[in-house]
Amino acid sequence: MENAELEELLRELLSDSSAERVYIRIAKETRSPHELFASLGRGAIVVAEFAASENFLSFQSRQEHLERYSRRIRACALRLEIEQFPELEFPNQNPDPKRLIVARIQQFLVGLVDTSELYQMVLLRSGQLIASAHPVDDLDSERLDLLHRQLSAAAQQSAGSAHGELVQPRLYGLRFWHGASLLGFSRANYSLDFVRYRSKMVSRELAHLLSMLDNGPDSPGAIAPIP
Length: 227
Hints:
By secondary structure, the protein is of the alpha+beta class. It folds into 2 domains: 4-90, no CATH class; 97-223, Dynein light chain 2a, cytoplasmic (Beta-Lactamase, 2-Layer Sandwich), CATH 3.30.450. It has 6 helices and 9 strands. The chain has helices spanning 4-17, 56-79, 97-114, 138-157, 192-213, 220-223, and strands spanning 21-26, 35-41, 44-49, 88-90, 120-125, 128-132, 164-168, 171-175, 180-185. The strands form 2 sheets. The chain has a 5-stranded antiparallel β-sheet, sandwiched between helices. Residues 216-227 have low confidence and may be disordered.
């Protein structure tokens, strides 16, 4: 899960650059003539691979764009305290089934943001970031632990229920199945009733997907029934 933000940045790069494939690798000597790369430091590079039919001049015009993404990736790795860059690619030719589940979760979060007045929606599980509609910036990241604890306290105050709510002028939080929390961020006042309704609808779908991430008879998915 710790690579989710890096994977989201690769997904954005793929979309913005019109590349066929983007990936993070340990730097190598030989490269395809249809690849652009930028250094990430620590012996790693980010690579954008284009179709063979692309004009090389268009490659040159995209180098600056790739460099901007390399700086964002480095900043993300620094914030997450990643000492060694993992080898990632998007689209992944042999995806981990759990990554496919997380990607599906992200689709729900993006849909929730797109149909509401929120600019960001994140999903936490036991305080750990599972997925987000968009990459989490430093400000939001610093607030997540505090907000998670506030939501946990709200759930404890709801006698006989694992659910809790956190309502602030520019934030809506919903705690639902087995320690999972949705946190939505807004830049202005939002329609509470609509965001609450949509969040609860999405939380039912997310509960099923979260249960698929669990393994073994002692996992939360096996112990706690999905509401």
